Amino acid sequence: MSVLVTRPGKDGEALCTMLQKHNIASLHHPLIQLEQGSGYTELPQDMETSDIIIAVSQHAVHWANHALQYYHADFPQQATYFAIGEKTAHSLTKLTQKEVIFPLISDSEHLLDLPALKSVKNKRILILRGNGGRELIYQTLSQRGARVHYNEIYQRNPISITDPTLWAHWQDAKVTQLVVTSGEQLEYLIQQIPKQYLRWLKQLTLYIPSQRIGQQAEKFGFLHIINTGSAANPILLDYLSGKLITGQEHDR
Question: Are 7 and 41 within one domain?
Fold first, then answer.
């Protein structure tokens, strides 16, 4: 068995290192690269004027911290902090030294179900995110009467697969498992794959972190999908090493 890991940056590299320590062969091929976003310069002011700050990913926390350090500013203490995932919350807690509220299931729907986000009328809410993405949090909180503002603190840029021999190389390396941690990555992979390798790709066991991405994978025709319920590397490792299997896999 060999695992193809598409998650970008150091997180993807770290997962491959963890797999190798467990004698699981892996290949790292990120499909997006992360860079400074358009909201970088406005971040200190955006944060100072916010009652609630929501981080949608660890990348949002990383780039927010980078911007604040550059402008010699701190995470404001008057704000209430939320994060979509546990790992994002832990990263934000370390930097803010404040409690960060997060849902047990890492997605927008469960974030919006948190009691602390039910009564937000006239609250100033800042969402830290990358370029684009879902609008559900913004729309729902706006409908609840909040004044919601985005800061696109980082930018995701696609990485093209320019080597036509790469697909054959992955086959020869006996890739049987595929880790994709965002719907954007999955869609970009499907867009680039040559037709002659599409059947092979859809037969791989696909590991995804949420039901929403799982539904997207089903529409693309993937046959073996495992929803890990989290994009945290230790949890992905547990699934890939066989420690966690029961109740999560569904075959079409």
Answer: no
